[in-house]
């Protein structure tokens, strides 16, 4: 009789997307500078970061926030929130992304907070992107591109995207156009292949009525903490 045990199937636990978000949210703490104010983005991954930040809140001065939602979460956890105009510059901004490429260019705005996110990112010396590996793409344009627009310009801007061969639709909430923290609307654009993110961002940003385009190439990430099946991978750009 052969007593040798047959090899057991591998039981490496597969992390859920939510667990990957928690991992990168916690990993981002290493970029927070003690005694300083940290720039904080918006979204479900950033929520994990805010929860982690609360555990070291006594070591920081506070945060500059990119949305009403993040401000409320930060304050609820006892983290002071400063107005952007009160601070000279931030050493680090931590935020998620809808897509990120191998150069650190991103598509952002899935949570409709892109305008304030770009402002706080511009105020910061370093952008640390936190994302699960589903967000890493070869070329930007798979995720619908969010663009914040002044409502009276919506129709013309949709037409300009149509001229590029893309399709833009107004984002709705409860059957009505979603209104951003800045009182504007969002259009989501599909069918784009963004080969040159810098040129694309520069071009669309100039269209009258565009408040912010969701391509972050001028404010690209310098670091990405990517949640993968084998742990957090650090990409430096
Ligand atoms: C909000 C954003 C978010 O960073 C982006 O949508 C990613 O969100 P999540 O972490 O929930 O996947 O740009 O405007």
What does this structure look like?
It is a single chain. With 237 residues, the chain is α/β, with parallel strands linked by helices. The chain folds into 2 domains: 17-137 and 218-236, Rossmann fold (3-Layer(aba) Sandwich), CATH 3.40.50; 145-214, 2-Layer Sandwich (Alpha-Beta Plaits), CATH 3.30.70. The chain is 25% helix and 25% strand. It has 6 helices and 16 strands. The protein has a 7-stranded mixed beta sheet, sandwiched between helices. A 4-stranded antiparallel beta sheet has the order 9-12-8-13. Strand 2, helix 3 and strand 3 form a beta-alpha-beta unit. Helix 1 crosses helix 2 (44-54). The termini are far apart. The mean pLDDT is 95. The structure holds ribulose-5-phosphate. Ribulose-5-phosphate (5RP) is lined by residues 41-45, 95-98, 108-114, 117.
């Amino acid at each position: 009789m052969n007593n040798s045990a047959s090899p057991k199937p591998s039981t490496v636990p597969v992390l859920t997307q939510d667990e990957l978000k928690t991992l990168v949210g916690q990993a981002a703490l290493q970029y927070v500078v003690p005694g300083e104010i940290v720039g904080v983005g918006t979204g479900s991954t950033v929520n994990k970061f805010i929860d982690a930040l609360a555990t070291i809140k006594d070591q920081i001065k506070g945060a500059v926030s990119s949305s009403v939602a993040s401000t409320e979460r930060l304050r609820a956890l006892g983290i002071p929130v400063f107005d952007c105009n009160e601070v000279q510059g931030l050493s680090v901004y931590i935020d998620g992304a809808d897509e990120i490429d191998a150069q650190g260019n991103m598509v952002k705005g899935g949570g409709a907070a892109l305008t304030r996110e770009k402002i706080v990112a511009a105020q910061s010396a370093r952008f640390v992107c936190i994302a699960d590996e589903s967000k890493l793409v070869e070329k930007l344009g798979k995720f619908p591109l969010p663009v914040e627009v002044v409502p009276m310009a919506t129709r013309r801007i949709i037409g300009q995207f149509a001229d590029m061969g893309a399709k833009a639709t107004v984002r709705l909430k409860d059957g009505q156009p979603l209104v951003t923290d800045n009182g504007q609307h969002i259009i989501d654009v599909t069918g784009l292949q963004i080969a040159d993110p810098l040129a694309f961002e520069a071009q669309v940003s100039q269209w009258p009525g565009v408040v912010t385009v969701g391509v972050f190439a001028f404010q690209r990430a310098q670091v990405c903490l990517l949640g993968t099946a084998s742990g957090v991978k650090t990409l430096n750009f």
